[in-house]
Amino acid sequence: MLDxxxxxxxxxxxxxxxxxxxxxxxxxxxxxxxxxxAIPPARWAALLAAxxxxxxxxxxxxxxxxxxxxxxxxxxNLSAEDRYFQAMAGxxxxxxxxxxxxxxxLGPTDGERDTFDAALGRLRLERQGLEMRRWVEIGGQAVDxxxxxxxxxxxxxxxxxxxxxxxxxxQALLADLTDDAIAxxxxxxxxxxxxxxxxxxxxxxxxxxxxxxxHPHLRFPRRxxxxxxxxxxxxxxxxxxxxxxxxxxxxxxxxxxxRAQHPGLTPQALLPLYEDALDEITAASEx
Length: 287
Hints:
The protein is α+β, with helices and mostly antiparallel strands. 44% of the residues lie in helices and 12% in strands. The protein is built from eleven helices and six strands. Helix 7 (111-121) crosses helix 9 (200-214) and helix 10 crosses helix 11.
């Protein structure tokens, strides 16, 4: 039986996690926890230091994910998953630990995008250990917002949000190539149309719902109150287009073949080749 009073008295997240792990694993000495879990002591120490916002110099950020995966699996198997998530609530790790490679960039702004930005902020992503950046480049492509972080499960969140108008066939083909490049950077892609972000809070709730669907232990608000915002016309008004996984999108095989034939070309450089290939396919089908 866990002594919750003792755990609640711990002065830091790291010591609370140590105490909980020792209690759940049934070891009297906290220093025995890493051995019990077959975690290298140095990696265990680095994780505890990171939980107290004091990661040791030179600690490899990529080493956190396997430790967290092992921890989560152990707590899950011992029916203490909820207690584990409680102890890890709000824990944030360096973005490198989530395999994030993004570059700060510039992008368009207007009142509706600013309102959407504020609505995304009201999701309180930092409480879930996540970080949001506006106007970054991923895979050489600009995205309007990016959300990333390493979760206590050891899984990484990498989500790109793009606001893009539907401007016809050529722009649709370029969007194919652009989203391929973003996804190649390890990010899932959600696409909103400009008219959708007029309902900023509904769109923000859709982003939260998407994150929860992929990572069920995450919890976001079910309602974001904004008295100045008109409600959606219908339930699906603010639903984004899920543009990943890319392998399930139309013409994926064709794009892969073009990239194999012309390695190193940017989406803009591949676009005319992509258009020509589709024209040839269309002409052949007509014949």
